[in-house]
Each structure stands twice: as C-alpha cells, then as structure tokens.
Write a structure and sequence with these properties.
Blueprint lengths: L2 E2 L6 E2 L4 H8 L13 E4 L3 H11 L5 H9 L2 E4 L14 E2 L2 H8 L4 H5 L8 E8 L2 E6 L6 E2 L6 E3 L2 H10 L9
Antiparallel strand pairs: 1-2, 3-4, 4-5, 5-6, 6-7, 8-9
Amino acid sequence: MKNIQSDGPLMEDTFDPRVLDWYRQFSRETLEINSDPNLFVPVREEEIQKFEEEFGRILPTPYLAFLRQIGWGRLTGDINGQDTLDYENCFLDPASIAEIMRRTSIEWQIYPDFIREDEVPFFSLGNNSVLVFRRGAGTSVYFPYLEQRFAASFGDFISRLRRDCMFYRQLL
C-alpha cells in the first residue's frame, strides 16, 4: 500500500497527489451558495469524534483523510467538462452517514432493506441510492447488496470519478 503525504493527515491508499490537488480546488471553509458544479467543505475533527463515539471506527482511514482535507460535498462536474444533472454525486458527512446508520433517515421508511448490516454508506447518488464500503473489505466501493465492485479502493474511486463523474452508471 502506498502512502502519500499531502497537506495534512497521511492518506493510506493509492492516491495520486494530482487527484487530491484537483479536488482541493473545490474545497471551501464554509458551505456557500454558488453555481459551481463541485463544492466541498472540510469536516471538523469534532464531527468525526462524535460519529466514532456512536459507531466506532467504521469509516476507512482514507475516507476520513479525504473528509478532513477535501471535505464532504458534491462532485457533479469532472476534469473533462462533463457534468451530471441525473446524479447527486455527494460525498456524505459523518452526520448524514450516522442518520443512515441509525436507520432514521427517510430512506429506511421507504426501503426497509436500504443497506446491509455490514455496509457503510459514504456517497449519495440521489434518489435514495448510495455507494458503500463493506466492513472488513478495505476501501472497495460497492452498491448495496451487489457483489460487483465499483472501484477496488477509495483512491481508485475518486480518481475514476474525477475522469468521469458518472463512471458508475455503466455498472448499475
């Protein structure tokens, strides 16, 4: 496993520093209303601690590092100028993940089998669909209940998303 130092905590995954730099350009200190297709807000350490007090350390280290350095938010435009209005493409913050994990979100009322017990949502596609990590499966990315991987690692996921903000649609 390759480690890359980039302005903050060590990110343990195969991350290309150019990919992180590309995402970093969309990171803002606060959520501001704008028309940019991409917007991220770094997560405060207190938010992560609160989540971990309730659920333990179930979020993979690379995702936590991404949340700290880049943030939660949307990526609806890629490096090639393609954008999506069909998908939300939102990296979830710990509070949103907690709501899903507690089964108190509206999705659970509509879809009682929204995610499996061993799945941890982290990316919203919109329309009550998420992508998940699986406990014990590293940082591979899956659609709930499906065995087909969307990406071999979180680093691979953000790299592919950067090149094609809807790459996963071919697998749905």
